[in-house]
Amino acid sequence: MFSWIALGMDKMNFMSGEIAACLDHMKKHVKIVGAKMKKWPGSTWETIWEVGREDPRRVIHGLKVGLSLTLVSLLYLMEPLFNGIGQNAIWAVMTVVVVLEFTAGATLCKGLNRGLGTLLAGSLAFVMEYIAEESGHVFRAIFIGAAVFFIGFASTYIRFFPHIKKNYDYGVVIFLLTFNLITVSSYRVHNVLKIAHDRFYTIAIGCGICLLMTLLVFPNWSGVELHHSTVSKLEGLAKSIEACVNEYFSDEEKETSEDKSSEDPIYKGYKAVLDSKSSDETLALHASWEPRHWRHCRFPWQQYVKLGSTLRHFGYTVVALHGCLQTEIQTPRRVRALFKDPCIRLASEVSKALRELASSIRNRRQCSPELLSDHLHQALQDLNTALKSQPRLFLSPKTHQSTPTPTNANANANANLLALATQKPEKGMGVSLTSFKTDTLALMEWKSNKRASCEQAKTLRPTLSKIAITSLEFSEALPFAAFASLLVESVARLDLVIEEVEELGRIASFKEYEAEDEQVVVTCERPKGESVAGDLKNLPTEGAD
Amino acid sequence: MFSWIALGMDKMNFMSGEIAACLDHMKKHVKIVGAKMKKWPGSTWETIWEVGREDPRRVIHGLKVGLSLTLVSLLYLMEPLFNGIGQNAIWAVMTVVVVLEFTAGATLCKGLNRGLGTLLAGSLAFVMEYIAEESGHVFRAIFIGAAVFFIGFASTYIRFFPHIKKNYDYGVVIFLLTFNLITVSSYRVHNVLKIAHDRFYTIAIGCGICLLMTLLVFPNWSGVELHHSTVSKLEGLAKSIEACVNEYFSDEEKETSEDKSSEDPIYKGYKAVLDSKSSDETLALHASWEPRHWRHCRFPWQQYVKLGSTLRHFGYTVVALHGCLQTEIQTPRRVRALFKDPCIRLASEVSKALRELASSIRNRRQCSPELLSDHLHQALQDLNTALKSQPRLFLSPKTHQSTPTPTNANANANANLLALATQKPEKGMGVSLTSFKTDTLALMEWKSNKRASCEQAKTLRPTLSKIAITSLEFSEALPFAAFASLLVESVARLDLVIEEVEELGRIASFKEYEAEDEQVVVTCERPKGESVAGDLKNLPTEGAD
Fold it and tell me: Does B413 fall in a domain?
């Protein structure tokens, strides 16, 4: 009995504790909101300014919407127009609010969906009316109810079809809306088809104004947007890969910040590429409605989507390269420096090719036949030569211990591993492994003995895994090998990108490349052979093997 | 003069050619459509069946929408209800069509947005009416026109603010719609506030039915969907990384198909992860409106989004691993086999950890403290040992030519390189490089002499780049080093994933882990030391260096 009461008390304590925590949380929230309110006017002005500065077309679009609404309101406000059209003028206002979108393609897509949905629903409702006309009052109500149920079910279900969802989702909603409005109204209002007819006119006027505004007054084209975004993605990747390699070989040690701040030029370069799938597809869908390129039968917007997907895959390679910069085990800078020149040259050749592709798309011309220049091959070969000239590089670090290196200290910069790390250069490898072994054993014992509470386990685990990775005596060059291999991989991926861009140029009939179009300035000359060879000599080649 | 005519004729020829191409294209299109129409009934039934089978909740949702619409139509169809509510009942129908969405969160989000937008617009319109009431007819029209313009501009512009766009986009549209309807109507209809008042009731009824249906009848929760999708993403990654490593070390040669068919288990595993950003964010947004977890003050849906982003970054590493399978230069299978056991074990440990994380989230319990098992460390160490036991591996392939290998033939399976490839094993490396050199030189001459037309350049370039990559005598082990390094990298990324999952468990107060919850069956035992050592002996260690 007492235990029950105690349990109940416990529960109440627990609940009151929860409520107190909740109140606490709310208090904090209120404080934060209060602080925000003080800064509110300033930050709001900043946002307003920033949004407009980022893309001035937004301001224009806002003005366009305001103007269209005012124009369409005139139908209602001006006496002669109102006399002609009447109360239904309000439907024109509704149409403008709902249909007018930022780009011409989106407006057309929505407008046509709306038109098609309304027409279909009107026809179907007419058929229904025809069937139900002769029947009695009660039967008619049942018939309408059943029709509403069935059409509601069918059109909701149809919205899950991938093809419908992608292209006609809005149209189906409008179909359902209109069908219900007409069918249900027809039960009590008898001139419903007359009303539908009148409304159709005003909706057509609304659509007309939208088309006028979207196609003729400062039009924004989805196609152009897609085009520009593709160009900027190519340029972003070019920047990213260059910055990545430069940072890898830079001399000063950067603290590896875990949070990818937007300031990081590498992250900024590929960020837009990675999550571009849905925006690409939407833009391509809207672009396919735009009348601009109808003379080409069908402008290949889907090719842009394909190119985007290839670029995303290129982007994943760049992310993996970026990962090499942030990983736990690092090849010492001294070793990296040996391969600095060929790697930087290779990266700059890849990004040059990407920039050439970007400029070819921007100017809608086919890409230069000298795109994959001999410089690229030269850089690949130099990297190859450099790698081969260092056969001993991939040996375990212990085999060339004769030279004093700051290697392990670098790799194990982790504070709580410092003791372990400073031990290592003195002791042999077996010792180091043993020391790790005992470490784990100790941890295991500690765990089984103490029934580690989760809070403790949390602080423990990351360290544990870091020990596991950094304490391993992987061949120092392994991470560099990964870096080099990914760099070569990026060249292979570049090929796929070039193929897609060429395909795009072919389908979209870009103008032919003319050598006079631009003088390609070769900025990255191959440095003199001596300097590379000189660098390479620095590595101790006397192995203990 | 003649030249002008000739030019004109040329242009006409060009245009007629274009038109002919267009017609051709259309004919093809018609044929394809015809063929499709024949298969239409069968494939449609298939799609209908498939969509329902994939997720039976879709059928239920369809039935719910049908039922709600019928219920709301009764307001209009049944005499007593209609007498109470009148013509405005039609607005309830509209509300249901527009507001009722698949998940409870989405419905609530839309419903509240709609409600808020309508209320705000109504209040603002009331203020406007109050100001304009006393003025003359003409001034009033001008005032209304100006208000419509200004509010139209401001609310369109405000939709570009990231915060508004994310949370209240629909609400702003409804605000604009309602404001215009009321303000413009008020010019001619004088009891407009009475109408608005009546409509508000029917809209409330519509919203009520939507809430009832969405919250009480077979509810679908966005939160649960997000939860499940996170679990399945973790499991997909686990499958993917395992399949990837298994395929890398499998004995039979698979043809590397460039198109990532959906059948590929590796691609299938990580596909859902890569493009999950927008769906994750939408689900989290909708989930935050759901009342299910209100007792937690604020359930940490944003933590799911953060975890999703970490998973995406893990996914990029898996993509890079997958890239190692498809790359041009491949480490020969004979060499790979040496590291088969530790790599496969490492991968299976990583995927075991991912599966444990998935199951911990699925069961809403904190994850096992033995998550990063010693098996993982053991596998890491074994890989380390295996790598170190092969110091000569990273030498150029020419240095251990004594054993006959099918290596280069494999790597250069490219048909047009066969001649080059078969030459290579016989000749020394210098020769091979020279042969490549002359190849490029020949190409360069050919290019400069012949002014390569772009069509020719297209067929030429990919080959050129493939020659460049495959003909390089990179150390054979370089690609394997990348593979191993990425595998180790995935362990490091796993750490970040674990951190996020633990953070999620902490914030969402998952129940504590109990050892009895499930008996972890250790399936991947460490193979006996002898077999590894035996394998390692197979590599020829007599170098020519």
Answer: no
Give φ, ψ of A118 to 5 degrees.
Answer: -65, -45
Between B90 and A103, residue with greater pLDDT:
A103
- What is the number of domains present in chain B? 2
Regarding whether A378 and A315 lie in a shared domain, the answer is: yes
- Most B CBs within 10 A among A192, A310, A377, hence the mutation to make, goes to A377
Based on the fold, state whether residues B235 and B207 are members of the same structural domain: no
Comparing CA positions, the residue from B144, B162, B7 lying closest to residue A82 is B144
Contact A149, B93 (CB under 8 A): no
Same domain, A131 and A95: yes
Distance, in angstroms, between B465 CA and closest chain A CA? 7
Flag whether residue B380 sits within 8 Å of chain A, measured between CB atoms. yes
% of chain B with per-residue pLDDT over 70: 68
Tokens of A18: 């929860």
Is the pLDDT at B375 greater than 80? The verdict is no
**Which of B474, B483, B511 to substitute to test the interface with A, most A CBs within 10 Å?**
B474
More confident residue, B438 or B91: B91
A125 with A179, same domain?
yes
Q: Is B112 a member of any domain?
A: yes
Q: Please tell me which residue, B404 or B173, carries the higher pLDDT value.
A: B173
Please tell me whether residues A241 and A365 are part of one structural domain. yes
Comparing A319-328, B207-216, B450-459, which segment has the lowest mean pLDDT?
B450-459
Q: In B, residues 405-434, which contact A (CB 8 Å cutoff)? A: 433
| pLDDT, chain A, mean | 72
The model's pTM is 0.72
Residue type, A251: D
Q: How close is the nearest chain A Cα to the Cα of B251, in Å? A: 23
CATH code, B277: 1.20.58
> Does residue B452 sit within a domain?
no
CB count within 10 Å of CB B332 equals 18
pLDDT given for residue A458 in this prediction: 38
Does B161 contact A at CB distance below 8 Å? yes
Which positions in chain A touch B491 (Cβ < 8 Å)? 465, 468-469
| Residue B404 pLDDT | 35
Q: What phi and psi values does residue B365 have, to the nearest 5 degrees?
A: -130, 160
Note the pLDDT tens digit of each residue in A168-199: 999 999 999 989 988 888 888 777 777 777 77
Domain that holds residue A357: 222-250+259-391+476-507
Q: Do both B79 and B170 map to the same domain?
A: yes
Last residue of a domain, one of A216, A242, A269: A216
* pLDDT tens digits along A198-256: 778 888 888 899 988 888 888 888 888 888 999 999 999 999 998 888 888 886 655 54
B511 in helix, strand or coil? strand
Q: Is residue B401 part of a domain?
A: no
Per-residue burial over A210-224, b if 16 or more Cβ lie within 10 Å, else e, is bbebbeeeebbbbbb
Whether A136 and A212 share a structural domain: yes
Is A200 part of the contact surface with chain B (CB cutoff 8 Å)?
no
Compute the C-alpha angle A250/A256/A257, nearest 5°.
135
Instruction: Give the closest-approach CA distance of A2 to chain B in angstroms.
Output: 27
Q: Does A43 touch chain B (CB under 8 A)?
A: no
Looking at the structure, tell me whether residues A192 and A338 fall in a common domain: no
List the one residue out of B253, B285, B241 whose CA is nearest residue B483: B241
